[in-house]
Structures are given as structure tokens and as C-alpha cells.
Amino acid sequence: MKGDAKCHSSAGNMCNNETNIILRKMCNDAVKSYQRSMTFSGNKLSHVLFENDVKQATGNVRGRAEWRNNFQKLVLFRQKHKHCNIPKRYKPDPPFARWAQRQRYHYHMFVAGKPCPMTQERVEMLDDLDFIWQVKEATWLERFNELVLYKKDYGNCDVPTTYDANQTLATWVRFQRRQYRLYMQGKPSYLTETRIAKMEMIQFEWKPKKKARSVAIYLNETE
Questions:
Q1: Strand ranges (DSSP E) for the chain?
Q2: What predicted TM-score, i.e. pTM, was given to this entire model?
Q3: Contact criterion met (CB below 8 Å) for 154 and 163
Q4: In sequence order, what are the residues at sequence separation of 6 or more whose Cβ sits closer than 8 angstroms to the Cβ of residue 31?
Q5: I need a surface site. Which of 85, 134, 193, 200 has the fewest CB within 10 A?
Q6: Are 158 and 110 in contact (CB under 8 A)?
Q7: Which of 160, 180, 181 is nearest to 170 (CA)?
Q8: pLDDT > 70? residue 31
């Protein structure tokens, strides 16, 4: 037993010695890093490396907290709107909209193997919410959702050519009709079967009855 005790004591002393060696090395490295910062930066910029390390660690913690907070906002947004396509100009929370845009940018960097805040865990969390990674697809869905709201307000999808409330939407609607004609002619088009199906689900008219509407307006004015 005494022999065993001596062995354990010796092993403990060895572990303590190794730990002390590691700690001394870390302290020496820190001192050297500090000295390098003094030598490299001069008196006005002393403590540069040390301060950068602190800022980086603090920034990482804050960054993770900010990401989690915005992700929770995204969950609530999806529950309310049934999609995750936050408009670029989201008046209720502009910083949140910018965060969503950054996720797409960071995702492409992540896929390309470049340093970025995106991680596999974050990708999977966003995928679970059906987050749209492609910017063009996200933009198309943003306009489509605006068209859905227009129909809810006016009962149709006939956005006027000049629509001061949202001229971007008016231009987008005309573009969809042009792309539809190209698609039907077998020519290159941005429209897909999926997009066409979504438009037709809300009774979008690919060939608006302009003449009929003009006649109706004329009759109303002459009555």
C-alpha cells in the first residue's frame, strides 16, 4: 500500500510538474507576444496584440448571441408569414433584414471554403426553416409575396403599370409576363414550372384583359 501511495504521489508530482511547465510556457508566450506588440507598435499602440485577443474573444461571444437572437426572430417571422424571405427593406426591423442578407453571403463563403462566421450547425438550423440561400430566388419570392399582399388588398393581381405605392412590383409583374411569353415559345426564360404554378395558384393573369378594362372605364365615365 505504501508503495502504491508513493507511486500515486510520484505520478501526481509528475502531472503537476508538466502542468507547471505548460503554464510557464503559456505565460512566456504571452510575455513575448506583449513584447512584440511593444516593439512593433511603439508606445502609442502598446498592448495591441493583447487587446486584439480580448476584443476577438468578446466579439465572438457577442456575435454568437446576436446570431441566436436573430435566428429566434426568423423563427417567429416564419410562424407568422409561412416563409423566411425577409424583405431587403423590412421597416419593422432593418438590422434583422440585413442579418438575413448576410447569411446568404456567408453561406456562399462557407461553401467555397473561405473563412466566415457560417458553420455547418447554422446551415442546418436555417435549412430546417426552409431558408432560401440563392439571392435571385429570394428576390423572386419577395416580389411574389408582395403580389400576394396586393391581391389581398385589391382582390386581383392586376398591378397597374404605374403604381406609386410599389413601382418595383409593377415592373416585376410586367417582367413575369414577358418571361412567360418566352417560356411558352420555348426560348430561354427565368420562369420555371414551379414559379408558373405559384403564380397561377393566386389566379395571376398572364394576358390581362386591357381592352375590356379600358371599355369598362370608358362606360363608367360616360354614364
A1: none
A2: 0.57
A3: no
A4: none
A5: 193
A6: no
A7: 160
A8: no
